[in-house]
Amino acid sequence: MTYQPLPAFLTIKHSDIHGLGLFTTKCITESTELGISHVKNDDFPDGLIRTPLGGFINHSENPNVERVDSGDFFVLKTLRDISINEEITLKYILYNPIPEIFSQEPESCTLS
User: Fold this and answer.
1) Within a domain: residue 49?
2) Residue 23 lies in a domain
3) Which of 10, 12, 68, 105 is deepest in the core (most CB within 10 A)?
4) Which helix (H) or strand (E) holds 23?
5) Residue 88: pLDDT band by 50, 70, 90 thresholds?
6) Which of 36, 41, 50, 60 is nearest to 97 (CA)?
7) Rg of the chain over all Cα atoms, to the nearest angstrom
8) Considering the entire predicted model, what is its pTM?
């Protein structure tokens, strides 16, 4: 078995929404599970580890997928049929992935 960071029917390319995004390489039907987008892990600041599937998905007020809680992880599931070359989008709220401790400026010091 060979590891594939994305399903064979998805690719990453330039997005008109923001930076890079996930796009279909074939038509996908409604209620298709695309794979794991986030793994729950309390050792991380927001309690989640994003997979490549979760790392490249862009926000939309009219998304074509939803994030479904599956216990120890979240999966993406299509809300409708998605056309070939259409961007995969999810409605989500942005968060600060950098804890306050890492965003603070260090104290200045003098080297002697």
Assistant:
1) yes
2) yes
3) 10
4) strand 20-24
5) very high
6) 50
7) 17
8) 0.77
